[in-house]
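Example (one chain per record):
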Amino acid sequence: MKIKFTQVNTISNYVSFSRVLLGIPIFYYISQINEIVNARNILIGLYIGAYITDILDGFLARKLNQISELGKIIDPLADKILVIMIVSYLYIYNIIPPVYFWIIVFRDLIIFAGGIFVSKKIGRVLPSDYLGKGTVLSIGLFIIAVTTNLNSGSMVYLVLYYGSLLLSFASVINYGLRGMKEIKQETNGNI
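Predicted structure:
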């Protein structure tokens, strides 16, 4: 896949890149979560800002006719980088359980590696679907819950925790099935 400068130099791609840059202040406030009075509120604002950029980049790409294969890579990659950064910080500072950290990191790495494999086979990027987007949202809601210091024994915490883990497993299986279907269709179409 050849990338042209016009595919990189788009408003929607800059919005996606800005989501990754939000990792810097997020790291700072997570590291100071118990020292700065409003750190938790600021973090929630940063998480919401990141989510808005996730919605905004896709909207702008469609509205400004800037949909590109590169954009289809940058958007989910920015999500994965930011999510891995956040869960890593939360894990380092003992805010989330280790098993949660490992499942989320492995989910993103498996989908990333699978995405590269599928893209090489079919010559284009397999776009995210509603299950993938719902999974990222559920992980985000759990991250907000732990950031607000929600009691880990509460029903809301447990629903968000197990719900996001269940969706994480389901999204990996779904992505694998979609990838295999696309590869099979591409292979059958080239016979």
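Caption: Residues 155-189 form the longest helix (35 residues).
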